[in-house]
Write a structure and sequence with these properties.
Order of helices and strands: HEHEHEHEHEHEHEHEHHHHHH
Low-confidence stretches: none
CATH class of the largest domain: Alpha Beta
Mean pLDDT: 97
Strand order of the largest sheet: 7-6-5-4-3-2-1-8
Structural class: alpha/beta
CATH topology of the largest domain: TIM Barrel
Number of helices: 14
Largest sheet: 8 strands, parallel
Helix content: 40-55%
Number of domains: 2
CATH superfamily of the largest domain: Aldolase class I
Strand content: 5-15%
Length: 299
């Protein structure tokens, strides 16, 4: 499993949306065509309960349902990475359920608690890992201000196998890689547009929300980066940059909004987003997204 997981972590971690029905309740069955297309295109690892899955807008019970349903839909065709977070007790419950569902590994969200401590976060990761029965862990690092020493301490937790680096700071990433176990896999957590810059200092693989609507482009970008063909990777990224530009607006508050609006446009209605995410797109945002979809023959 370790070798397969290493390959998956170095590939694309595709962050699935959480679909809703007309009442606003979760409707996981709507993911079936998205998962089938993405895996058919070669997606290395689907991710449930990530931020593009509106993790913090879900109840713990909903997150438990989502990991079971996604694991059933993937049906062993690829490793499943399960997002874990919130209070330590909620996180441990979700970790236990994710293991029961058949998840391959856990992606532990960096706690957003205003009073989080670096050493407390080490304990948080250890407790979650134990609750899962020792599943491998990918740390989701959105705040590198904790410093290299504290990043190294987190990475020394035995179950940690990879780090999703989600800060636009390649130099700090380079320092972290040098300070930690060389067997760890550092993944670009800022999607396709940041992948070349982070690859250049040692990251491998990247996360993607684009896989929900255009997995073939994500796989082509990954193939180019794996081959060291940065000009081709950058050419492919330029053609999907408008998609990420829309998602980055309103302090990233349209991140999921953009993906779900694009899904509606291509005929897969996964509902809107829950507050405090923005919904729907503004008229200018909608125009940009529609132009992107038309230019790339997605609609």
């Amino acid at each position: 499993m370790s070798h397969d997981l290493d390959q998956a972590l170095s590939g694309i971690s595709g962050i699935l949306v959480t679909p809703y029905d007309d009442k606003g309740d979760i409707a996981p069955e709507k993911l079936s065509p998205i998962i089938d297309r993405a895996l058919g295109a070669g997606l290395h690892m689907p991710v449930v309960n990530g931020n593009t899955g509106e993790f913090y807008a879900l109840t713990t019970e909903e997150a438990v349902t989502m990991v079971h349903e996604v694991a059933n839909m993937v049906a062993g065709r690829a490793p499943v990475l399960a997002g874990i977070g919130r209070s330590v007790r909620d996180a441990c419950r979700l970790a236990e359920e994710s293991a029961k569902a058949g998840a391959t590994a856990l992606m532990i969200h960096q706690p957003p608690d205003p009073f989080v401590s670096p050493r407390g976060t080490v304990s948080y990761v250890e407790q979650i890992s134990a609750a899962s029965g020792g599943l491998p862990v990918m740390l989701y690092l959105r705040n590198d201000a904790i410093g290299i020493d504290n990043i190294r301490r987190l990475c020394e937790v035995p179950s940690v196998k990879g780090i999703k680096w989600a800060t636009p700071n390649p130099l700090k990433l380079s320092e972290a890689i040098a300070a930690c176990d060389p067997s760890l896999i550092w993944v670009c957590g800022l999607a396709e547009v940041w992948a070349p810059a982070l690859y250049a200092v040692g990251a491998r693989g990247f996360t993607s929300g684009l896989i929900n609507i255009w997995p073939e482009r994500s796989l082509a970008i990954h193939a180019a980066l794996d081959a060291g063909n940065y000009p081709e990777a950058n050419r492919l990224i330029r053609a999907m940059k408008a998609f990420e530009d829309v998602r980055a607006e309103e302090l990233n508050g349209t991140n999921v909004t953009g993906v779900k609006a694009a899904l509606q446009a291509v005929g897969i209605d996964c509902g809107g987003t829950r507050a405090p995410s923005a919904w729907p797109l503004t008229a200018p945002q909608h125009a940009t997204m529609t132009a992107f979809l038309k230019e790339n023959a997605l609609i």
